[in-house]
Design brief:
By secondary structure, the chain is an alpha+beta fold. It has helices at 12-23, 69-73, 76-96, 121-125, 130-144, 160-182, 193-203; strands spanning 4-9, 30-39, 47-56, 102-108, 111-117, 153-157, 186-187, 209-214, 221-226, 229-230, 236-237. It has a 3-stranded antiparallel β-sheet with strand order 1-3-2, covered by helices on one side. Strands 4-5-6 form a 3-stranded mixed β-sheet. It has a 3-stranded antiparallel β-sheet with strand order 7-9-8. The longest helix is centred in the middle third of the chain and has 23 residues, at 160-182. Residues 41-47, 61-77 and 229-261 have low confidence and may be disordered. GO terms for molecular function: RNA binding.
Length: 261
């Protein structure tokens, strides 16, 4: 029997990210089964938490990196059927919720993209995108229960994800400048796994700061701190001497004084 773990989180993406760190393998090498969902406050259709059983696939289950042209073209019809099925599912969902929202499901560059827009689109975004995250969990669950849980998927409402990513990148750059200027680390507000990764990626090549995550879900947040400086003897010393923070996601924690950003 395959070794597996049960992981809970606010989104399937978050669960798979944590499981990948646990097994020390890329997420695409994981298999999973959705065990349960906890419904949200807006509607019985919107889950807030998902519990998943995760395991590492056997070698024969992992698709080869290169496939013959025939193999690449074969799933096209099935993908089209999934696209139509998902379009119907989302259309019925927003209709039952009484929302004036249009649904457009397309396939672009091998990714299944679900775009929703309309007069009531804001309801599907929610506070800080929480309802949108829950909606994506629901869509992934819908696909997984039909044997298509590993299809690349993007769910967006009124272009919110793109706007949010741009805003987070600007925030990361602004806070990095503040850390360098004031020589104090900055602790950002709690974010989900997707948004924390955007911050880490935005600053991963910054010459003067490092990022890492601290805390537990749903209060896990990113810390932006100064990198260490080298002494003349070759050893490293921190900019200031304080207790080291726990938690690491995107870089090693460095000493410094907490400052909320």
């Amino acid at each position: 029997m395959k070794r597996s773990v049960e992981v809970s989180g606010k989104s399937l993406e978050e669960v798979l990210e944590r499981a990948a760190r646990y097994f020390d393998v890329p997420p695409e090498q994981l298999g999973y089964e959705v065990l349960s969902e906890t419904k949200g406050f807006l509607s019985v259709f919107v889950p807030r938490m998902v519990k998943v059983r995760v395991w590492v696939k056997d070698e024969e289950e992992i698709a080869p990196e290169t496939e013959p042209p025939e193999a690449q073209k074969a799933p096209a019809q099935d993908f089209s059927e999934v696209q139509e099925s998902l379009d119907r599912f989302l259309g019925e969902l927003v209709e039952k919720m009484g929302l004036e929202v249009t649904v457009n499901v397309t396939q672009e560059d091998g990714v299944l993209r679900c775009a929703l827009d309309g007069k009531d689109a804001g309801v599907l975004i929610g506070r800080k995108g929480e309802t949108l995250e829950a909606l994506e969990v629901l869509v992934r669950t819908f696909l997984a229960r039909r044997g298509h849980g590993e299809l690349p998927l993007e769910v967006d409402v009124s272009g919110y994800r793109k706007r949010r990513e741009e805003a987070l990148r600007k925030l990361a750059e602004r806070m990095a400048r503040k850390v360098v200027r004031e020589k104090k680390r900055v602790r950002l507000a709690p974010m989900n796994a997707r948004e924390r990764r955007i911050i880490h990626t935005a600053l991963k090549d910054h010459p003067q700061v490092v990022t890492y995550s601290v805390g537990e879900e749903p209060h896990r947040r990113v810390v932006i701190d100064l990198k260490t400086q080298k002494r003349s003897g070759g050893k490293q010393k921190p900019v200031k001497r304080h207790a080291r923070s726990r938690g690491n996601e995107g870089g090693s924690p460095q000493p410094g004084k907490d400052h909320e950003g």
